[in-house]
Amino acid sequence: MKILVTGKNGQVVTSLVEAAAYMDDIELIAVGRPDFDLADPPSVRQTILAVKPEIVVSAAAYTAVDRAEDERNLAYAVNVTGAAAVAEAAAVLRVPIIHLSTDYVFSGTDPYPYLEDDEAEPKTVYGYTKLRSERAVASVNPRHIILRTSWVYSPFGANFVRTMLRIAAERDSIGVVSDQWGNPTSALDLAAAILLVATHPARHYSGIYHLAGTGETNWSGFARHIFDVSRALGGPFADVEDIRSSDYRTRAKRPANSCLSTDKFERVFGWRAPSWQASVETVVRRIIDRDYPNYSPQPRDGQEV
Ligand SMILES: NC(=O)C1=CN([C@@H]2O[C@H](COP(=O)(O)OP(=O)(O)OC[C@H]3O[C@@H](n4cnc5c(N)ncnc54)[C@H](OP(=O)(O)O)[C@@H]3O)[C@@H](O)[C@H]2O)C=CC1
Ligand SMILES: Cc1cn([C@H]2C[C@H](O)[C@@H](COP(=O)(O)OP(=O)(O)O[C@H]3O[C@@H](C)C(=O)[C@@H](O)[C@H]3O)O2)c(=O)[nH]c1=O
Ligand SMILES: [Mg+2]
User: Fold this and answer.
1) Is residue 126 annotated as a catalytic residue, yes or no?
2) Threshold 0.80, pTM exceeds
3) Considering the domain boundaries, does residue 170 fall inside one?
4) Are the CB atoms for 56 and 48 separated by under 8 Å?
5) 234 found inside a domain
6) Residue 79 lies in a domain
7) Residue-number span of the structural domain to which 204 is assigned
């Protein structure tokens, strides 16, 4: 099966390329800038029509949540107009599209895990553009699966796990918000799920699905687990101080609760992601082996390391 995935260096695309390398029956073609630019719809159409994939995975997006508040037009062009061009090219080829979206489409004010049909009410420019992208994709290509995921991390690219380890290599203690809840998701698990959907006999199904790591935490709980694992492996660690969002000012206000119920995905595709803790361990181990192989902590005032 020939799969086209959008983006070259993103977390999800890199994880897909890695996973597909082990599968003989899958040819994965990643397309990205400069030839394929979501901000330039003709380049999108041309690239996809030339590759003629059997299915398209739409993983590229403008993902800088804070910067999007000041770059609305660019975020919209990439996430909405660009994604619509991807879905339209897939429709011209009469092939399905798996389009990735986010927990940030929800306001985060409800106290339970969000279901696919719950009302989306984004509070950030990024979340708004992703919601509009879902609707644009669905309206131009009837053969769509919208896969909403959350808090994605991996050995690759920019993500919370790599940020925490980098900061811990320089500081003893980190303040991390404890009043935003969600489901950390390893891009390695997400890649496995995407390939499952792409090759599933039911791939003509359409609709929205939630797929995220199993179990809930907040960002400070996530950070603590990263450091527990890293410390045991001889990598960087730091004390985590719980702080409130109101004490950590950011341009975009994140949802307080963006946990996603993944029951529908499990019901239809028979698969659930590992516990978020187990997946963090896998990824932290890889990052330490690669980026901190001979790490030795700096001696810190009055503290044993
Ligand atoms: N990261 C997260 O926590 C979450 C992500 N998602 C969604 O999952 C998907 C994948 O995210 P993730 O892999 O983490 O993203 P990354 O931020 O790691 O990567 C973004 C990708 O988009 C590509 N891209 C950005 N702008 C353009 C453009 N104008 N033209 C072409 N490609 C472009 C980048 O290109 P290049 O290769 O050139 O850098 C890169 O490949 C996105 O749709 C995102 O909205 C959903 C929930 C959580
Ligand atoms: C670096 C740092 C962050 N934080 C907080 C800020 C924020 O509330 C939270 C996470 O910060 P980040 O900037 O990594 O997260 P953010 O960019 O909001 O991550 C989001 O990205 C987009 C693309 C998505 O789709 C979402 O699912 C989600 O993963 O941690 C601290 O409290 N202390 C720190 O030292
Ligand atoms: Mg970020």
Assistant:
1) yes
2) yes
3) no
4) yes
5) no
6) yes
7) 2-158+185-215+259-273
Ligand 1 test: best mutation among 12, 71, 185, most atoms within 8 Å of CB? Answer: 12
Q: What is the CATH number of the domain that holds 191?
A: 3.40.50.720
Question: How far is the C-alpha of 263 from the C-alpha of 271, rounded, in Å?
Answer: 9
Residues 6+ apart with CB under 8 A from 55: 1, 2, 3, 4, 90, 95, 96, 97, 98, 198, 203
In a domain, 175, yes or no: no
Q: What residues flank ligand 1, with Cβ below 6 Å? A: 7-13, 32-33, 36-39, 59-63, 78, 100, 102, 130, 149-152, 157
Each residue's pLDDT expressed in tens, for the chain with a length of 305 residues: 999 999 999 999 999 999 999 899 999 999 999 999 999 999 999 999 999 999 999 999 999 999 999 999 999 999 999 999 999 999 999 999 999 999 999 999 999 999 999 999 999 999 999 999 999 999 999 999 999 999 999 999 999 999 999 999 999 999 999 999 999 999 999 999 999 999 998 666 799 999 999 999 999 999 999 999 999 999 999 999 999 999 999 999 999 999 999 999 999 999 999 999 999 999 999 999 999 999 987 666 655 54
Ligand 1: centre distance to CA 298 (Å)? 34
Helix axes 219-232, 276-291, angle to 10 degrees: 50
